[in-house]
Amino acid sequence: MMMKIADAWRTIDAKVEFAGASESFAEGAADTAIEAAQRALGVELPPEFVASYRVHDGQQTGVEFLFGPYRLWCLEEVVENHRALLASGCDSGEQLVGFADNGGNSTVAIRLAEGEDYGAVIELMEDGEEPLADSMRAFLSSLAERLETGELLWSTDAGGFETLADREEAEKYAAQQAAWETARAGPTAASIRELPPGTETELTGTRYGAVERDIVRFATFDGRVKLRGSLKGAGFNQPIRVRIRVGPRPKFGLGSPVYEILSWEPIEPE
After folding, report:
1. pLDDT at position 110, please?
2. Contact 141, 3 (CB under 8 A)
3. 197 forms bridges with which residues in the sheet?
4. Spans of the chain below 50 pLDDT
5. Which domain holds residue 228?
6. What stretches of 176-237 adopt beta strand conformation (E)?
7. What is the model's pLDDT at position 193?
8. Residues 220, 155 share a domain
9. Per-residue pLDDT tens for 36-59?
């Protein structure tokens, strides 16, 4: 069920206060400020948009992304950024008014063109636009629900709320980096070059390139070696630990020996 503007903001405010940033959102805009903004913009803003700004006129300070994953602009920024949009020659500039951003190249805007999508909220990106909600009320209601259900989570590192999908992706990346750090600390190609034939040892690194017959190319952090056997199931750029046996040296001492694969396992972050 869609929340009223005031109810949605109460939920958002509660989450922001929980995050310890309750002073970030400004007080609501006065009617005189809203009227001045509409004159400067040369448009009449949708009633739900106005109702939202009567609750909070943007964020006071800092660049924390407390409006979900966005930073809410004050009316002065709305006017200033709209003028910049018009000056840029954007074809749809007169039909849109931005009111938030993600700190990068995306702006959240409300559509002003008369028609079925009047008042719709969209995200403007360098390569196009994406609809976010049919109205400001629907946008705020969805945002409040996502905060309430935990789909949006507070991140101290990000300085704001982030989506659950973004957090999971960040955690996956951190785990991969930790695995690589573990791999870097393991035995390398240089450490096995002088070992006598028949010696069993370990290598850490990743497979690369195509398999030639039963020869697998393997990259460590200080070089590359050839392994005989199978690393089936090991992905490219996946850090793994391989148990090997040193093969006989080539005749006349030219080149490196081929190392026999005994077993392998993925490297898990410690």
Report:
1. 95
2. yes
3. none
4. none
5. 185-266
6. 200-207, 215-219, 224-228
7. 79
8. no
9. 999 999 989 999 999 999 999 998
